[in-house]
Design a protein that fits this description.
Oligomer: single chain
Membrane topology: Peripheral membrane protein
Number of helices: 22
Structural class: alpha/beta
Organism: Vulpes vulpes (Red fox)
Shape: globular
Largest sheet: 8 strands, mixed
InterPro entries: ADF-H/Gelsolin-like_dom_sf, Beta-sandwich_Sec23_24, Gelsolin-like_dom, Gelsolin-like_dom_sf, Sec23/24_helical_dom, Sec23/24_helical_dom_sf, Sec23/24_trunk_dom, SEC23_SEC24_subfamily
Protein name: Protein transport protein Sec24C isoform X4
Distance between the termini: 18 Å
Keywords: Cytoplasmic vesicle, Protein transport, Transport
Amino acid sequence: MTGETKWGCTHNERQPVSSTCAAIWAAPACLPRVSSIQLWWATRVHSPHHSLWSLQWPSTRLSANISPRFPGSQPFGSVPLTPVVSQPTVLQPYGPPPTSAQVTAQLAGMQISGAVAPALPPVGLGYGSPASLASASGSFPNPGLYGSYPQGQAPPLSQAQGHLGAQPPQRSAPPQASTFTSPASGGPRMPSMTGPFLPGQGFGGPSLSQPNHVSSPPPQALPPGTQMTGPPGPPPPMHSSQQPGYQLQQNGSFGPARGPQPNYGSPYPGAPTFGSQPGPPQPLPPKRLDPDAIPSPIQVIEDDRNNRGSEPFVTGVRGQVPPLVTTNFLVKDQGNASPRYIRCTSYNIPCTSDMAKQAQVPLAAVIKPLARLPPEEVSPYVVDHGESGPLRCNRCKAYMCPFMQFIEGGRRFQCCFCSCINDVPPQYFQHLDHTGKRVDAYDRPELSLGSYEFLATVDYCKNNKFPSPPAFIFMIDVSYNAIRSGLVRLLCEELKSLLDFLPREGGTEESAIRVGFVTYNKVLHFYNVKSSLAQPQMMVVSDVADMFVPLLDGFLVNVSESRAVITSLLDQIPEMFADTRETETVFAPVIQAGMEALKAAECAGKLFLFHTSLPIAEAPGKLKNRDDRKLINTDKEKTLFQPQTGAYQTLAKECVAQGCCVDLFLFPNQYVDVATLSVVPQLTGGSVYKYACFQVENDQERFLSDLRRDVQKVVGFDAVMRVRTSTGIRAVDFFGAFYMSNTTDVELAGLDGDKTVTVEFKHDDRLNEESGALLQCALLYTSCAGQRRLRIHNLALNCCTQLADLYRNCETDTLINYMAKFAYRGVLNSPVKTVRDTLITQCAQILACYRKNCASPSSAGQLILPECMKLLPVYLNCVLKSDVLQPGAEVTTDDRAYVRQLVTSMDVAETNVFFYPRLLPLTKSPIESATEPPAVRASEERLSNGDIYLLENGLNLFLWVGASVQQGVVQSLFNVSSFSQITSGLSVLPVLDNPLSKKVRGLIDSLRAQRSRYMKLIVVKQEDKLEMLFKHFLVEDKSLSGGASYVDFLCHMHKEIRQLLS
């Protein structure tokens, strides 16, 4: 709809408020012109799990093309009943939402204040194409890209969280839901403003359908623009003498019938009014949804922490939904893999493919095979079966696990994946107890735990030969940019000490990893650092088109043996190239050289590349500058994410075959084509780090912290991963940083504890509710000590024949992780708009299916969300507004490509905070408190100019300082006397000896320790130019790039759901 405030309704029918574990919301329906919206009514509804306040509109008077019908109703004695006065609607253009002060809803007092003048229309919201239809009056501009919902106006919601009242026992079905009702269809409606009642705004009782209700016939339809005030006929009788309160009026409200009120004009200028004096139009207060009434991520996270953070999560029960990733909990492995290793989008899988298609919920698992565990939890036990190796099924090759069924006294076992009967080898035989379990089940990790490791035999090794320990090769760009910025000197100084901290196995004193060094610009320099040499030797390879390694002996060395020579080399490198004027660099030949060196040494390993510029020197893999922002929002935008040459895919394939993983550290001052340079790290299981416009004084701490962590972390080399499933489902799609040469094996030259592989499953047969579904992830890899191992993770899921069971066992955080990766891969081949529309459609289908099949019948104006998925709209909107799918003007092409490849292998906890950042107020909690302050919602409305806030998203860390912060706080934190003296953009807080300074610096250190990458601090002052960057992360608000606010997106999602249902 355009130009006027229109609210639809369901032919003047109001429904009783649904009480199925639901919080109730409202969204306007799309119907012909409504000539007047007359009043509010308030109810307090008690439903299972919460006491629910709802503010509801009565029926609206419709124009000539719909004949109103009036439902019956019955009063609620608990609500104060106020005389009713009708009030016309006045057309107003869509304006920006009122401030939080204007929107405060005082439910206890039910007060509504005077009107606010309409504001100018906002810019479009970024969904679909702008409508160009004229408004009904012909005088209002296009309100934006949401057809039916004015900006900032939405279905009012009241929610199960934080409300008062009794909590009766839960009904068994349908599953818990959050429900929201439209003002047009008679649901709860939050008052827009506080203050005394306006004339014509009263409260009535709730409407409950009564089949035996007798009402007067509907009045004649009125011409468009006509206002109906007062009852046109005699009021209907009350239902029962026992019902207190006023009788029902024609408009469905309670209270004494009132005549027309003078000085209330009609909604349209010039339209007749019956029985009232004409007067100037009186605008209604803007109808805006109270943000506190819609599902809050902060509240859901807090509730989960309170409910599930104190008890250990025991994995013995099939199909348990684990606590949220934001909850700190202890895991006890009793037969299923810990959620730190595997998280699923749903822990209850539909039995049939038809049911899965109907629900549209993706069935996926986010697997983190080498995840690091907290100190209180035990790493997987290593099982050594000797030369015979691990026991497997002869048919499907699944590994022995707790779900295998031993039969015939323990002499045979039936595979739980393919049902094949296998003989038990004599050396593995054991008797069964009276329950059919082996008597040694709890002595064997593979029979009692969800995760464990097997030592692999020589049959699992390349060329039937045990591998050598891996090697690290440091490859340093020594072109003009790298030298001038101070990067080379900083790096060489750091490597001297860092080489003492290479990863090592268990209790070994020193690492088995060997190291080598290469420098490069247009040519490559190899260094012989053999321990017997007095000084390192340099060998130059200038023929970069045909790369070879000029030396074998002395290139890869043991650090402790060659310590003196390595230190001498690292001292000399900055001096050797101090006067260089060479600005051009090569890139592909550098990777080729590292791979050839590992091949010659017959070992796997990792290349650490430190690179500064676009490789434009004549060489294989030469690139050109193709950065073109004009392609954004065109069909050619996808080319910005694609590599500009196929040479790097070929190179990556060779690296994977050799077990050569590549970690890339980029230091660009301008465009370097991250989309192309990141191909090899992406396909080899490596990482990309980016430090734009690197300056030693500003970026040193971040770079060195990332480098230390990257060098020290435990990595599995030359890895192959396969996911097996029980009959009925199979793995069909994979997302992450890896290479696949066939449809089943995920090949990773390297895999660290931060990387995930996301796997999607589809049905290929019917599943059985009794037996459930099983997943087994098997990772074959070489450890840092050169040991070949198999890590196994098992997980049993439930299966269901009822959609309600599916929706009751979903996990939204994992769902969003999958959907983001699906979308971020989609932009490689489809226009970004198509990808965004696909996400919105899928989300709408998921929620519409729930509404249609699981929710109790209710008004079409209600938006009903499954309890487990009530945060799906807010999180999905964050994905849609992300830089990859909706870039702002300041976001570079390289930034988008960088974030795209980064998210591809993120785990669920990382995507959760990346898409919905944490905002922590620092001065509200007691200074002596050791715990993190409670977070607030990521919206500008939550900021107080008298407070200081920390915002983090896993990559960025902001300290926002309000303009009215107390002078004592400023002094304690920044060591200056006033707000104006704080340096904007400051990246290090002064170390001061006071409780507040210690607390804030401690909190920053704690946040950094939780994340896989160092977050550089940026201090942002209120109303400073840097504040725009900070506000980009307030994801519940409308973004500058056109992304919708949470409220607006909720409206849009409701509209999509209603279209699907109709």
